[in-house]
Design goal:
Among the domains are: about 5-225, Immunoglobulin-like (Sandwich), CATH 2.60.40; about 645-765 and about 805-875, no CATH class. Helices cover about 5% and strands about 50% of the residues. Strand 10 and strand 11 (about 165-175) form a beta hairpin.
């Protein structure tokens, strides 16, 4: 699949970090399509096209910023009361070299053209309609002057393409019902038209926007001449039906695992245009059976794994509801007031059972209904409201035909409200957000959950000097309520560890029934006008901050200062096509103002004139005072470390493409180090087939890996071990695009990991200056292994009596996930899915990694197969 490469090209095509501020805006004046609109056949031969002029004179943005495009492009625009019509001719003096590559929608490859319309004319938001030479669509919306893009928007529109001796053409019909605009007699819209000449990776615009321009949408040209149109009634309904069968290994005596299960469901998705600018999206009993499985991971930390959202309802329009606390990459950049994976998550409670009892657990909490109201008013207010209700879920427990029911998840309501106001044509924005999660807890066994959780925030962004400089501030707060047990669990959780004995600024209070906190970030920097850009800022999370009822928070109790300097050169020179470099630095404290660490890195990326790409970086971290390593114990001083990474990619336009990514991380303790390598091959044997094979292998050796905490002689023993972890996996993808509307997509990931624990030890002096003084390694006369029981016996005082036991933590994890999806859009907006998914999951206790044995044992695991057919039908009222 070419998602990564195409996203790179599309970001270059339409993103903010790349652009020029043309003082003089181009204007295209359209006319009504009289007497008859054009027939959408890709030919541009209808007489009505003669009523409007061609516009052209496209200017490169890549590779030679500001120079005329090497191939001519021209376009025309018409309209009537129901549609916008666009005709684009992409001239090509070498028409046999036009790349006509078939793909699934939103996964375009090859030559393309497209139009963007700022119908709000707010200089911040633009609807995007692109098509490649094979007729494959990509569509989406750009938000916040191009800072965010959402390619999940799938409006219903029509396009045809054709090729001839002059090049190729695209003819579009975009229904006004798929756009948003105000009630006016005369309209002025922002307009941009673009082209990608694939074989040269040349991007050209009708309205020149240069590489170093700050912002994007506000620099569009203008579309004039639209008069007398009215926002149409906008009601879309998409009912669906699903039939599903599951096949698994039958468990004798277990009535819930009979070997085969049949079921089906009905549901409804829809859109309602509440006003000309606001749209209500809703879903009732949604089904996401066609969604690709999550990647396999082995998480040895105390923190929750973050997964990307893949469900269509929650992806579409997510940028309006998104409220990340800070910019950038890494784990902390995932902190967000809205993490949609909370809605429909697995059950929170697993019931205890007797020896002859079997349990049927719900896979996830069922989403009864969800709705989103999103849009932008003519006065500049961006509005986002979402509400979702998930069902009360029960586990069924069977004992020889006698059944009881235990509630494992309460009925829960999730609410989010977002409001943002534009000033100075979007150069200044002020916004607010609030979320609320309410659980209707009626069962005592669920009193460990927060009953009520409120989060909110305020954000301000100001840009000046042609938007080249910016200042932004984003704040968050949280307030949770629950039983004493629920709030105690929050205090003891891995996000805060109030019980730490050396933390003077926090303490456990078991009488609390509420908890509050705050956080945020502040940035100031330069993002345009020239080759150098920089950002200075900081971010913080107070100890009591809690976002995980509806958002995502990895860790609280931190203050981070950071700064970044970047340099970009986008004009080809010598053997290079482009070049950029970055230097980053940060320092970290906790809320007791204890300095916990420093770090930094330098990296660069370059593209050669033969279109190969190379990047690498080196980073270093000082000694780190980890407040979480002992899982509630005192802070542990960890050695300094350094890391490096390298990426190499061949020409992505070739039929056969190679990539290789490698990284290493080394701690200065003479043992701990990790390496990973990710080679990849992408092969396109024809314009309709795309195959990729991406294996990955990593070795992780750690001298101090947490095992468990035990009590001994009125003291705690924080047990650690040395580990060696080997992980091997492969991501396989096959895309067969028979037509733009009929595709077959396969995804498979076999994954095996073995973790071998050795050299058991316990922490003695966690902040000792000398590394070896921070722990004691058990000697042979203190530790012995009981192979029959599968545990270690510890005689710490060596008196011949076992003082405590440590379970053998060695394990092997094996998993295989795959999806085969046949997608047929049989009429515009209506789709049939045929899906086969298979999962295999197994564990073993050896910890010994063997490629042959692990992979063989993986495919000996009995599979869980799911077959489903999903049919939906689009109605526009």
């Amino acid at each position: 699949m070419k998602i990564t490469r195409m996203r790179f090209l599309l970001l270059l095509l339409f993103m903010t970090s790349a652009l020029v501020y043309a003082d003089e805006k181009k204007i295209y004046k359209t006319k009504r399509a009289n007497p008859h609109p054009p027939v959408i056949d890709g030919k541009l031969t209808d007489p009505v096209w003669e009523s409007v002029p061609w516009a052209g004179d496209f200017i490169q943005r890549q590779p030679f910023d500001g120079k005329p495009a090497t191939q001519k492009t021209a376009f025309k625009i018409l309209y009537d009361n129901k549609n916008i019509y666009v005709g684009i001719r992409a001239y090509d003096t070498e028409p046999d070299k036009i790349a006509k590559r078939m793909a699934r929608r939103d996964q375009i490859d090859g030559d393309l053209v497209g139009i963007q319309l700022d119908t709000y004319y707010d200089h911040r938001t633009a609807f995007t309609f692109l098509v490649n030479a094979a007729g494959v669509k990509i569509d989406g919306i750009y938000i916040n002057d191009g800072e965010y893009e959402d390619w999940t928007l799938d409006p219903v529109w029509y396009v045809k393409t054709s090729c001839d001796e002059k090049g190729w053409t695209a003819e579009m019909r975009i229904p006004l019902s798929q756009l948003r605009f105000g009630k006016k007699e005369t309209h002025v819209w922002g307009l941009e038209v673009a082209r990608l000449l694939y074989r040269k990776e040349e991007i050209s615009f009708w309205q020149p926007i240069a590489q170093d321009a700050p912002g994007f949408v506000h620099l569009f040209g203008e579309l004039h001449g639209i008069e007398g149109i009215k926002p149409p009634r906008h009601i879309e309904l998409l009912p669906y039906s699903v039939g599903k069968t599951e096949s698994m290994k039958k468990q004798p005596g277990n009535p819930f695992v009979p070997g085969r299960v049949w079921n089906g469901s009905l549901g409804l998705d829809g859109k309602i245009g509440v006003t000309s600018n606001l749209t209500l999206d809703f879903t009732v009993n949604p089904d996401f059976g066609q969604v690709e499985a999550d990647p396999s991971v082995v998480n040895l930390t105390a923190f929750e794994t973050f997964y990307k959202e893949k469900r269509p309802f929650f992806i579409e329009g997510k940028n309006i509801l998104d409220y990340r606390i800070m910019m950038g990459d890494g784990d902390i950049a995932n902190d967000n007031l809205f993490y949609s994976r909370r809605i429909g998550k697995p059950a929170s409670y697993y019931p205890s059972t007797g020896p002859d009892e079997y349990v049927k657990m719900p896979e996830n909490s069922s989403i009864l209904t969800a709705l989103k109201l999103t849009g932008k008013t003519k006065s500049g207010f961006s509005i986002g409201i979402m509400d979702a209700v998930t069902a009360r879920e029960q586990a069924i427990i069977d004992n020889d035909g006698k059944r009881r029911y235990v509630t494992v998840e309460p009925m829960t309501n999730y609410f989010l409200g977002r409001l943002q106001k534009d000033f100075r044509r979007g150069a200044t924005t002020v916004g607010f957000i609030v979320t609320n999660t309410y659980r209707d807890i009626k069962d005592d066994n669920l009193n460990f959950l927060n009953r009520n959780a409120v989060t909110g925030g305020f954000d301000f962004n100001h840009e000046w000097n042609n938007r080249s400089f910016f200042f932004s501030i984003k704040t968050v707060f949280s307030y949770i309520q629950g039983s004493k047990d629920a709030i105690l669990l929050q205090q003891l959780s891995s996000r805060r560890y109030y019980q730490r004995p050396d933390a003077n600024h926090v303490s456990v209070d078991s009488s609390l029934t509420s908890l509050s906190g705050h956080g945020g970030s502040i940035f100031i920097g330069k993002t345009g006008k020239g080759h150098f850009n920089y950002v200075f800022g900081g971010t913080w999370r107070s100890p009591g901050l809690e976002l995980n009822d509806m958002g995502y928070l990895r860790e609280s109790d931190m203050i981070i200062q950071f700064q970044s300097l970047s340099y970009r050169w986008w004009e080809p020179f010598a053997i290079f096509r482009s070049f950029n470099a970055n230097i980053n630095q940060w320092s970290v404290w906790d809320f007791g103002l204890t300095h916990t660490g420093d770090g930094g890195n330098i990296n660069f990326n370059l593209q050669f004139k033969n279109y190969w790409f190379f990047g690498m970086g080196v980073g270093i971290n000082s000694q780190t005072l980890s407040t979480t390593a002992l899982r509630g114990g005192p802070a542990l001083l960890l050695p300094s470390s350094w890391n490096a990474w390298v990426n190499l990619r061949s020409d992505p336009k070739k039929l056969l493409q190679f990539t290789i990514n490698g990284s290493e991380n080394i701690l200065m303790d003479d043992y701990s180090k990790s390496y990973s390598i990710r080679p990849g091959i992408t092969w396109r044997p024809s314009n309709r087939i795309l195959m990729s094979f991406n294996p990955f292998y990593s070795i992780n050796k750690m001298n101090l890996q947490y095992v468990e905490t035990l009590s001994y002689d009125d003291d705690k023993r924080y047990i650690f071990a040395s580990i060696k972890q080997n992980t091997l996996g492969v991501v396989l993808r096959l895309n067969l695009s028979i037509t733009p509307n009929l595709t077959i997509q396969y995804y498979g990931q076999p994954f095996v990991s073995g973790v071998d624990y050795s050299t058991m030890k316990y922490i003695t002096n966690p902040k000792a200056k000398k590394y070896s003084d921070r722990f004691h390694t058990y000697t042979d006369d203190e530790i012995s292994y009981n192979s029959g029981g599968g545990y270690y016996e510890i005689d710490e005082n060596r008196d011949g009596t076992v003082d405590y036991y440590i379970s053998n933590p060695d394990f092997n994890f094996r998993e295989f996930n795959s999806n085969l999806v046949i997608r047929w859009e049989y009429i515009p907006g209506s789709t049939i899915y045929f899906v086969w998914s298979q999962g295999r999951t197994g564990y073993a206790g050896t910890g010994e990694f063997s490629f042959t044995n692990d992979v063989t044992d993986l495919f000996r695991i009995y599979p869980h197969d799911v077959f489903l057919i999903k049919i939906n039908k689009w109605f526009s009222l």
